[in-house]
Specification:
single chain; 2 domains; two-stranded antiparallel ribbon; 16 helices; about 65% helix; about 0% strand; transmembrane helix
């Protein structure tokens, strides 16, 4: 089922669950020790600050100080690094309910959910064909130029070394073997890694677009009440972190609540709220690119993920179109209200700041009147 009608999207930013068990035994031992030490100091600091804060007023009336909030966000990072997603989410939700805590988490104003026509989206300045049909012309041009350069290099080497038919056959078979191994064994991961790495190094436009794309995912998820777990901004970064060619750049989330809701859904107890959040987060990257550049180049995997989910849940074409159009409008309007916050978040992500630090950037710069 093609949820998005005239859509032909293309790009490689992925959603995925991180598995930290790939570390070897030595590094696991070292990380375990350092985590314990870090956890001790953070918890000690949190308790000291909380005790100091509560001494002047009752616990119910105490407003969380900026220093205490930052200490708790450090603890969120610590729990995420340990792989304890539930503990990290528990801290964030506890901060959400406290005066002076996290104002923006799950606080986004959203448009009413109903069937929106394409003309209504156009009245809001949204051209769905430009937003929902991403095609990566930048990487496509780089790939074509690399192929041309490789071909010219081969011709030059052939003339220089006077290769004969036998050498040409061996060379062709070698290239075919490598291409087949990458396609079958790594799902094209090696070629994607090489192309993405070259793209980041020779095209500032591509590099910036990836950062803004992921900042869109991060911000929308946070404002809708889904905790980001981590992010990578290049295939090389993802490979170094995960040790797998099958993992590409992207933003990942603490998503056990969504998984639980899908199970409930499949048991015929429908719960639309979590699906709505997922739909908006999935389209946040292409929506960000659309707002910045007037069109989206990245986001094929994101759109296909949403398409596949709606199909697996038994959505009709009309119902799927309705879900996607609402999500597009809702996401675009949220991003427009918080353009400056997204830009500052993208800057923080480009510097490799932790999830907790990125949350702090959002909280410090969010316009509370426009949440």
């Amino acid at each position: 089922m093609n949820v998005l009608c005239t859509i032909c999207p293309q790009w490689t930013v992925k959603w995925r669950l991180w598995d930290t068990t790939h570390l070897n035994s030595n590094s696991t031992h070292l990380n375990s020790n350092s985590t314990s030490i870090s956890s001790y100091h953070i918890n000690h600091k949190v308790k000291s600050l909380a005790s100091s804060s509560s001494s002047s007023s009752s616990e119910a009336e105490t407003s969380i100080s900026g220093e205490l909030k930052r200490a708790l966000l450090e603890q969120v990072d610590n729990e995420l690094n340990k792989g304890d997603d539930r503990a990290a989410l528990s801290i964030v939700k506890d901060l959400q309910s406290k005066p002076g805590g996290l104002r923006a988490f799950g606080a986004a104003q959203q448009v009413p959910q109903r069937l929106y026509s394409l003309s209504e989206l156009k009245l809001n300045g949204i051209d769905t064909s430009s937003l929902l049909s991403p095609k990566d012309n930048t990487l496509g041009a780089i790939e074509r130029n690399l192929l041309i350069a490789a071909l010219l290099g081969f011709i030059a080497a052939w003339n220089a070394f006077d290769f004969g038919p036998e050498e040409l056959l061996y060379f062709s078979l070698g290239l075919f073997f490598i291409w087949t191994l990458d396609s079958v064994g790594f799902a094209g991961g090696f070629s994607s890694l090489v192309l993405d790495t070259i793209g980041h190094n020779i095209s500032q436009k591509y590099h910036n677009r990836v950062i803004q794309h992921e900042a869109g995912h991060f911000l929308i998820a946070y404002l809708l009440g889904i905790l980001p777990k981590g992010y990578t901004l290049s295939s090389l970064e993802a490979f170094l972190r995960e040790g797998s060619l099958n993992v590409q750049a992207g933003t990942v989330f603490v998503d056990f609540e969504f998984t639980d809701q899908v199970i409930i859904w499949l048991c015929n107890q429908m719960h639309f709220q979590m699906l709505n959040k997922f739909s908006c987060i999935a389209l946040a990257g292409v929506a960000t690119e659309y707002l910045l550049y007037g069109y989206a180049e990245g986001g094929l995997a994101d759109v296909n993920t949403l398409d596949g989910l709606l199909s697996s849940l038994g959505f009709t074409q009309k119902k799927a179109d309705s879900q996607v159009r609402w999500a597009v409008l809702n996401t675009i309007l949220i991003l427009r209200r918080h353009e400056q916050t997204r830009a500052l978040l993208a800057e923080a992500m480009s510097e490799g700041k932790s999830v907790g630090s990125c949350i702090d950037v959002i909280e410090q710069n969010i316009d509370e009147t426009n949440i």
